[in-house]
Specification:
The complex is a heterodimer.
Chain A (H helix, E strand, L loop, with lengths): L3 E4 L2 E4 L5 E7 L5 E8 L3 E10 L2 E4 L6 E7 L2 E6 L8 E8 L8 E3 L3 E5 L1
Parallel strand pairs in A: 2-11
Antiparallel strand pairs in A: 1-3, 3-8, 4-5, 4-9, 5-6, 7-8, 9-10, 9-11
Chain B lengths: L2 E3 L4 E5 L4 E3 L2 E3 L5 E8 L6 E7 L6 E3 L2 E6 L4 E6 L8 E9 L7 E3 L3 E6 L1
Parallel strand pairs in B: 2-12
Antiparallel strand pairs in B: 1-4, 3-9, 5-6, 5-10, 7-8, 8-9, 10-11, 10-12
The chains are: A mainly beta, B mainly beta.
């Protein structure tokens, strides 16, 4: 199994509060991704990173920001959480230098915004 | 734009039945990759297989087999002699070679329930 961890695994927060989710990998892979998974929508890409300090937006990036200061860590921040951001968040990495190959996923973070 | 369709939202079978999960994709690229993932009730996403667009050879792995047909843009997944542990949501995905970073597109998933 790919070495990907996410923290926290579960979080309940109130509307308007900032939230940061962390993804940590031990595979030294270049590409990292944040997805959200919602019923009826499948997996949707929020942001991705193609190297340290190199990030770009995905399909549903509004309300989210990311940072990657080290190869192994990719942070997802909700600046001011809203109820629509209640979801399960998955981090993923893609193997080595071949970005088109399979992505390996972390265990997920279940976020509830009340 | 690339797209993946999994027309079967939910399938229920009785244990030991064979079941096929359909996946139809759209892409303009000549080089692309297709994948299947499994998401069991515990929630993790497990990679099952990758196929390259230039390799239409079907693949068998134990009770799992995959049928890739470029002529119909399909990449179907068959489970033979299904077991209760096969109950999960299965996602088909497509990756295009020319679209860095945002190249991965997932289908909506098919929920498979295998009843004892």
């Amino acid at each position: 199994d790919a070495g990907i961890t996410q923290s926290p695994r579960h979080k309940v927060t109130e509307t308007g509060t900032p939230v940061t989710l962390r993804c940590h990998q031990t595979e030294n892979h270049r590409y990292m991704y944040w997805y959200r998974q919602d019923p009826g929508h499948g997996l949707r890409l929020i942001h991705y990173s193609y190297g340290v300090k190199d990030t770009d937006k995905g399909e549903v990036s509004d309300g989210y920001s990311v940072s990657r200061s080290k190869t192994e860590d990719f942070l997802l921040t909700l600046e001011s959480a809203t109820s629509s951001q209640t979801s399960v968040y998955f981090c993923a990495i893609s193997g080595g230098q071949v970005v088109f190959y399979e992505q390996y996923f972390g265990p997920g973070t279940r976020l509830t915004v009340t | 734009a690339q797209k993946v369709t999994q027309a079967q939202t939910e399938i229920s079978v009785v244990e030991k039945e064979d079941v096929t999960l359909d996946c139809v994709y759209e892409t303009r690229d000549t080089t692309y990759y297709l994948f299947w993932y499994k998401q069991p009730p515990s929630g993790e996403l497990v990679f099952l297989i990758r196929r390259n667009s230039f390799d239409e050879q079907n693949e068998i792995s134990g009770r799992y087999s995959w049928n890739f047909q470029k002529s119909t843009s399909s990449f179907n997944f068959t489970i033979t002699a299904s077991q209760v542990v096969d109950s999960a949501v299965y996602f088909c995905a497509l990756s295009e070679e020319g679209n860095y970073g945002q190249n991965f597109v997932f289908g909506p998933g098919t929920r498979l329930s295998v009843l004892p």
